């Protein structure tokens, strides 16, 4: 697919590319240069205040919690007394 560089360095992505990559107006695209190629990748921009959640370490912990949920190792408590009872603790 060939497209043309327009005024103000603009290009139009071919509709086949947009459909295949499921791009929508307003999506963020990362543009980089690899050797003699221009590489365009769709990216999701995460607010800095939420970046901790998406760290490798935190996502590893999230996966562990999911495994524990599926394995029945996590229980729900109906209140503080129920929680302390399930933990085998006296109310403080």
What does this structure look like?
The chain is α+β, with helices and mostly antiparallel strands and 92 residues long. It contains three helices and two strands; from the N terminus they run αββαα. A two-stranded antiparallel sheet has the order 1-2. It is rod-shaped and about 75 Å long. The model has no long low-confidence stretch (mean pLDDT 92).
Report the sheet-strand fraction.
Answer: 15-25%
The helical percent reads: 25-40%
Calculate Rg over CA atoms: 24 Å
Number of helices: 3
Let me know the average pLDDT: 92
Low-confidence stretches: none
Q: Which class best fits the helix and strand makeup?
A: alpha+beta
Draw up the topology in text.
Blueprint: H1 15-20, E1 28-34, E2 37-43, H2 56-70, H3 80-87
Antiparallel strand pairs: 1-2
Give a quick set of tags describing it.
two-stranded antiparallel ribbon, alpha+beta, 2 strands, 92 residues
In short:
The protein is α+β, with helices and mostly antiparallel strands and 92 residues long. It has helices spanning 15-20, 56-70, 80-87; strands at residues 28-34, 37-43.
